[in-house]
Specification:
Layout (H helix, E strand, L loop, with lengths): L3 H6 L1 H19 L4 H21 L6 E2 L4 E2 L2 H27 L6 H18 L3 H19 L6 H32 L4 H7 L9
Antiparallel strand pairs: 1-2
Helix pairs in contact: 2-3, 2-5, 3-4, 4-5, 5-6, 6-7
């Protein structure tokens, strides 16, 4: 059973994750209400940013020491969500103008922000990897969002190939770190660095 205090401190992540699921349902069942979806996503990002500031007094680690709950992390949450809300606000008219007004645009931006929030809060290499992949996959799709534009398709393909190679290197590096430190937890790895300084891995 997860303590209520941990759930409260993780509320920015929970709010944004829930908003993404609601936005998906809205896009499925209300396909003609793109404006409603856009404003729902903007309000959701602002609400997540507000909750990040409301719970900014956290000082420890939550979810089995995998996620940090410090004030710096919550400040990053606010910055990421506020910036994304501004991006969506400026995008509403632009994506209509270039005829790519699809509901998944807003959902992808929100999903990318959730990945960034996970990276910002991660105290475990597995969470870093999950957040990085969630963010990257959204960016691959957004890079090729202009489906009828050859340059957009080319950019998405090149970004995907480069990202796939990078992911392979990252996973290999994490495996080497785990082999040396026998832990994915960043705090444990940092604590073991002095005794591992002569380890060739």
């Amino acid at each position: 059973m997860i303590p209520v205090e941990e759930l409260l401190q993780a509320m920015p992540l929970i709010i944004l994750g829930s908003s993404i699921l609601i936005a998906l349902l809205m896009d499925m069942f209300l396909p003609k209400s793109k404006n409603l979806l856009a404003w729902f996503c903007i309000v959701s990002l602002l609400a997540t940013g507000y909750m990040a500031l409301y719970t900014i007094d956290g000082k420890g680690l939550i979810f089995n020491n995998m996620i940090s709950d410090s004030s710096r992390v919550h400040l990053l949450y606010f910055v990421l969500n506020f910036a994304a809300a501004i991006v969506l606000l400026f995008s509403v008219d632009y994506i209509k103008k270039i005829e790519i007004n699809h509901g998944e645009f807003y959902i992808l931006v929100m999903s990318a922000v959730l990945g960034m929030m996970l990276i910002a809060a991660a105290r475990d290499l597995v969470i870093v990897f999950i957040g990085l992949e969630q963010m990257s996959l959204c960016f691959y799709i957004l890079a090729g969002f202009r489906r009828k534009d050859v340059k957009s398709n080319e950019a998405a393909l090149k970004y995907f190939l480069l990202g796939s190679f990078a992911t392979g290197f990252i996973v290999y590096g994490m495996a080497l770190i785990y082999g040396a430190a026998v832990s994915f937890n960043i705090n444990d790895i940092l604590a073991k660095i002095p005794e591992l300084s002569h380890n060739p891995i």
